[in-house]
Specification:
Helix content: 10-25%
Radius of gyration: 23 Å
Number of domains: 1
Largest sheet: 6 strands, mixed
Order of helices and strands: HEEEEHEEEEEEEEEEEEEEHE
Shape: globular
Structural class: alpha+beta
Distance between the termini: 85 Å
Length: 330
């Protein structure tokens, strides 16, 4: 009898130990709608926004600054324009992104788009801007979605796509001088889609936040107080080499200014694109940005792309507004 009790006690301890281990693992892994864990996702990717210190703020404008702002009203993807293409990085390659992008602006954009097709297409922008603006979708991995794009990406990107509650497409000037027009069909990218495995964070531009704390940004997923929206701010480089609309690696023709706002020698300040996204996410809900499979949905991999398809007249209007210090909307 004594041996039986010892055996029973051992079995109980073993079961409890296995249960506690599973619970510990489950606390740091997120389940997909089919019950399979999203590899690499864990609660350490999250931070309470109240634990994030305020950032340094915007640079003070100098006497020659172009202080205007231009907002381009392109909606918030009410058309459900999604695909797994990346025209900037992988033109001509279907599903080359291996994750899903959401779009505003040009309604035809896919891997096979050309300058001519973009110039002829319809757009979601009220003022007729045919540029394309896009970014990886944000998902709730604990919910299965009903939209076809919610299951088409593969590579571990699964779950309900969270619709943007608000999208702001804004162009700003330079804090140190005037800006010149972007060339038509300029390609641009911001952020590092392979940041999780990259050797350095040099190209990381992820800026996650909460609507109630506009001065706090983080490269982790923020936990926002009730009633606040989760935000993503995607700021693009704005120093153009004056020659090219594209370059090997997709970065060297358009680079970021120095911390004092000055463009590198041999480059020219152009309008700075800033895309701001907001989502309704209840407290405690976990989210995942679409990514390459080896990037494990790291929030550091947030990125966005842009192809300028404004007419010369539209771009001239943007530049004039910025250089004149006005606030404009189109």
């Amino acid at each position: 009898m004594r041996n039986e009790r010892r055996l029973l006690t051992l079995l109980v301890c073993l079961v409890l130990g296995i249960g506690l281990t599973a619970a510990a693992l489950g606390a740091t892994r997120l389940a997909s709608p089919d019950g399979k864990p999203h590899s690499g996702m864990n609660t350490r990717d999250y931070v309470d926004i109240r634990d994030v210190p305020p950032g340094p703020g915007e640079l003070s404008a100098g006497p020659d600054a172009s202080t205007g702002r231009v907002t381009v009203d392109c909606g918030r993807n009410e058309e459900h324009h999604y695909n797994e293409d990346n025209l900037v990085v992988s033109p001509g390659l279907r599903a080359g992104a291996h994750h899903t992008h959401a779009y505003v602006g040009n309604l035809s954009t896919n891997a096979m788009s050309t300058d001519a097709s973009l110039a002829a297409a319809a757009t979601s922008c009220r003022g007729g801007d045919r540029s394309t603006y896009y970014w990886p979708v944000l998902r709730r991995p604990d919910r299965a979605g009903g939209h076809p794009q919610e299951s088409s990406a593969g590579h571990g990107n699964a779950g309900e796509i969270l619709p943007e509650a608000a999208v702001s497409v804004e162009f700003r000037g330079s804090p140190v001088g005037k800006v010149v027009p972007m060339p038509r069909f300029l390609r641009a990218m911001t952020g590092d889609a392979v940041a999780y495995t990259a050797a350095s964070d040099g190209d990381v531009r992820a800026r996650w936040g909460c609507s109630g704390s506009p001065d706090r940004f983080t490269t982790r997923y923020p936990r926002c107080p009730a009633g606040e929206r989760l935000t993503r701010t995607l700021v693009f480089p704005s120093c153009w080499n004056g020659l090219d609309t594209e370059s090997p690696g997709h970065r060297s023709h358009l680079v970021f200014p120095a911390s004092n706002g000055v463009c590198p020698q041999g480059t020219f300040a152009v309008p700075q694109l800033r895309i701001s996204l907001a989502y309704e996410v209840s407290p405690g809900v976990l989210v995942a940005v679409d990514s390459f499979p080896e990037q494990r949905h790291s929030p550091k991999t947030d990125h966005a792309m842009f192809v300028d398809a404004m007419t010369d007249a539209q771009m001239a209007s943007v530049v004039a507004c910025l250089n004149d210090g006005r606030t404009c909307r189109t």
